Amino acid sequence: MTADTLLDRAAELKQQLVQFSQSGRYDRAFRNMLAEGRQDAGLEGEEQAILLWDSFLLEHRLRDGRTVVEQFVESRPDLSRQDRELLLGWRDVVTGVFEVQRRDGSALVLSNLVDDLTYRTLATTGPSVFRRMPRRSFLLTRVVPLGDEWMFSGPTTVLRPADRDIAGRLALEMTLRSPETAYRNPERLARARELQQAERERFLRFFGSDLVVVPGSQAQRRLDEFSEFSHAELMRAITRPRGIARPVTMTLPPEVIGAETVGLVFDEDDGLSFWPDFGLVQEAFADPELARHRRYRHQVLACLQDQEQPPTALRRLAERDPAKASALFSRLLKRKDFDWSREGEQLLRTAKSDYFARPHLPKITPVSDRLAAYARRR
User: What is the pTM of this model?
Assistant: First the structure.
């Protein structure tokens, strides 16, 4: 099937998908998505409504865990294998700020400022729409797979070549708000992991361990001191430091600095995390008999059941003395035969199922050379 024929079929299937979704069965689910407060820069009115509905069809997870497009495919056993693959491929949406590189036959060649990748993109409305998308202009849009190519999905806002600064700022905001959009580029992902590992090594040099517990009243100061230490090391490693911005200081939320103690944990994969009242957890692992007291039991179980926090800190404490970890969780779980070495990892995976179900990306987000100037200003 040629690209043009595939594009025609994609237009038909997209129309059928939209009709399927507008039966009223999804109204409540759509309102729930809107209640999450999603906003998209540069769009308003009808364009905003179309974009939100397109995102709802292809990306939003319904109560049963599936997307609308997945339910549509399941409802249509008459679809060919190629049609099914085409529709399900649309779940891989790329949202970005694209610079128009050139016209290539019936397609536009676009460069995404967010991930630095190139997309040869077609439009279901035909190439005539490209007249308003001149070379070096910028497109705020979404594209989805079309075989080996891409096609526009939803509305497109066009910025003039003179609006390069606006495009750059929007791309930077998108990168910082949703780092996973940049990590489509494997080189960017590898670079982020390198930077996070280097930051972890500086953390180890400063604190002497990848897990430390400090009084809550000192947590912000210690974090600021580490930021200064990290910046000084970076400056010494740069032969021409002029123009290098100071590191961004992380501001801890009130519930963290208001805690009696705070655990600072820097993991290879999960990066830096903060654990309020972690001193109680550390003490309970050191002396399992403390689990007789409610505040110790409550805090250990809270850490275990927190779906947002990585399992790193609990693993670190258990590795210090697996026998004591076994004794602690034997008491907490009321299971005399519990053995951490044999069952600890499964316990973490069960208690933190949401955490293990999602991808884990670096918390340090490198930006492209094109966006570096906007990052320095920010």
Answer: 0.81
